[in-house]
Design a protein that fits this description.
By secondary structure, the chain is mostly beta strands. It has two domains: 248 residues, no CATH class; 71 residues, no CATH class. It contains three helices and 24 strands. A five-stranded antiparallel beta sheet has the order 1-21-20-23-18, covered by helices on one side. A five-stranded antiparallel beta sheet has the order 7-6-9-10-16, with no helix packed on it. The protein has a five-stranded antiparallel beta sheet with strand order 11-15-12-13-14. The N and C termini lie far apart (50 Å).
């Protein structure tokens, strides 16, 4: 099926006024040790295009974070600076970590998320030029569209993002590769990524993950404060660069994830693991679902976007600040 035919098919399926579940996936099959993508997954392969790019800035008053297994270590230079923590960016209030001094170990594996910044000198008027933290994403068996929303050190490769000690064996990552016109897949077997684990999943991107056994993926790194995620014409997959939950675009005027006004006739597909299919929303001056605010993204979640030729490419811009609240 060509992408043009698939686009027409997917848009046609959104002619009603309510979210609709479409397109199921099946577990991957293996043959002679080579991973194959199931027939049911082929339409998704033809629909997916991933975004890339990241911005990193650092200065003298910066936090650094390094990870070993389920333990991360925060380090900073000035002993007078106060380490503060926050579990929900833009929502919760930053609180001092009592008694924290550099180097400061934290436990990252488990549930939820935590973020850290420096209150310079403890005065509450100046803050570090970056923030770091970790995000735990619970993965049920089957397929999930996942997002990595922190820049990991040393990089955002699968080998760094999904360490063998914290990743269920036989987990598979699928990411679209424009050079081959489909997914490049990598599977962890016996603690080793079969494809070398060099595929990257950067903030703003997304990928399918398949696991037979539920587990929790833990992402550790630096929050990317400024970003531009380009949403092209056609199919793509995007995520919020900032690890926040919220509506993609709330046309009722409420707080959202800063996506901006979607292009006319654009369609947004959230994959629902429990249904093995999609819930979709179309925007044409307002959301297709009656009295709703469109798709609501959770931390660690990515989604498909279809932008028709009649729409213009869209740039999802974020400029997040470290300072108060």
């Amino acid at each position: 099926m060509t992408m043009q035919r698939l686009a027409k098919t997917m848009v046609a399926k959104r002619s009603d006024s309510h979210p609709k579940t479409t397109s199921c996936l099946q577990p991957p099959a293996t043959e002679r040790g080579n991973l194959r993508i199931s027939r049911a997954l082929l339409p998704v392969i033809m629909a997916l295009a991933c975004l890339s790019g990241s911005i990193h800035e650092a200065g003298a008053a910066s936090l650094s974070i390094t990870r070993t297994g389920c333990t991360a270590t925060l380090t900073w230079t000035n002993a007078a600076d106060v380490l503060e923590t926050n579990s929900a960016l833009g929502a919760a209030i930053w609180k001092p970590v009592v008694g924290a001094s550099s180097p400061y170990p934290i436990t990252t594996c488990g549930t939820g998320a935590n973020f850290y910044r420096l209150n310079l000198g403890g005065g509450g008027t100046q803050f570090s030029d970056n923030m770091v933290g970790y995000v735990n994403v619970a993965l049920a068996s089957g397929f999930t569209l996942i997002a990595n929303q922190v820049n990991n050190l040393p990089d955002n490769t699968l080998e760094s993002l999904f360490p063998a000690g914290t990743t269920t064996d036989l987990t598979v990552i699928y990411k679209f590769n424009s050079a081959i016109g489909g997914f490049a897949s990598d599977q962890i077997v016996g603690g080793t990524w079969s494809g070398g684990g060099t595929t990257t999943v950067n903030p703003g991107e997304g990928a399918f993950i398949f696991t037979r056994v539920p587990f929790t993926a833990t992402f550790v790194g630096e929050v990317q404060l400024r970003s531009i995620v380009h949403v092209p014409i056609g199919f793509s997959i995007v995520s919020s660069v900032i690890p926040q939950q919220g509506y993609l675009y709330d046309d009722y005027g409420g707080p959202d994830l800063g996506y901006g006004v979607p292009g006319g006739q654009s369609v947004y597909y959230q994959f629902i693991n429990s249904l093995n299919g999609y819930t979709s929303y179309q925007y044409s001056g307002s959301w297709s679902c009656a009295s709703c605010s469109g798709p609501y993204l959770h931390v660690g979640e990515s989604m498909f976007v279809f932008s028709p030729a009649s729409a213009e490419p869209h740039d999802w811009r974020r400029n997040f600040v470290v300072g108060p609240p």
